[in-house]
């Protein structure tokens, strides 16, 4: 089983929103073979707490505009690691220190990454 087209589209929107707020090392991982609870992880990082919060706000706003609300939000406003759970897609926005320490990509290295165009398209994009 691979990630559904809807999950890939949602993950792509989230990745583009994160990139628009200058998130670094944005990656989408297809975890559908390993997890039954979700299809994709979006992982993005930022250099400071303020930027982590700005990225999270942008992801939530862009996905809300597309008709999606997170069913769960973890991490509060500390700005170190925030998780947004959209059921089929889980978005992790991490401070660079947390990203390096927890190394989620290494944990999920057996899962394929999904190539995404980080430039937004449509009415807001190019």
Overview of this structure, please?
It is a single chain. This protein has 126 residues and is α+β, with helices and mostly antiparallel strands. The chain has a single domain (5-107), classed as Beta Polymerase, domain 2 (2-Layer Sandwich), CATH 3.30.460. Helix content is 35%, strand content 23%. It is built from 4 helices and 5 strands. It has a 5-stranded mixed beta sheet. The termini are far apart. The model has no long low-confidence stretch (mean pLDDT 93).
Backbone CA Rg: 13 Å
Helical content band: 25-40%
N-to-C order of helices and strands: HEEHEEEHH
CATH architecture classification name: 2-Layer Sandwich
Strand order of the largest sheet: 1-2-5-4-3
At the third CATH level, what is the topology name?
Answer: Beta Polymerase, domain 2
CATH homologous superfamily identity: Beta Polymerase, domain 2
Structure, briefly:
With 126 residues, this protein is of the alpha+beta class. The protein has helices at 5-20, 49-65, 96-102, 104-107; strands at residues 24-30, 40-46, 72-74, 81-85, 89-95.
């Amino acid at each position: 089983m691979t990630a559904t087209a809807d999950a890939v589209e949602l993950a792509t929107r989230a990745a583009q929103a994160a990139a628009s707020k200058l998130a670094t090392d944005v990656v989408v991982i297809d975890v559908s073979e390993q997890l039954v609870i979700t299809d994709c992880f979006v992982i993005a990082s930022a250099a400071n707490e303020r930027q982590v919060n700005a990225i999270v706000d942008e992801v939530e706003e862009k996905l809300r505009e597309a008709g999606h609300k997170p069913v769960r939000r973890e991490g509060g406003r500390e700005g170190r690691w925030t998780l947004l759970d959209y059921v089929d897609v889980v978005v992790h926005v991490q401070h660079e220190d947390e990203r390096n320490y927890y190394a989620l990509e290494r944990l999920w290295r057996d899962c394929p990454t999904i190539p995404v165009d980080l430039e937004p398209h449509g009415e807001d994009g190019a």
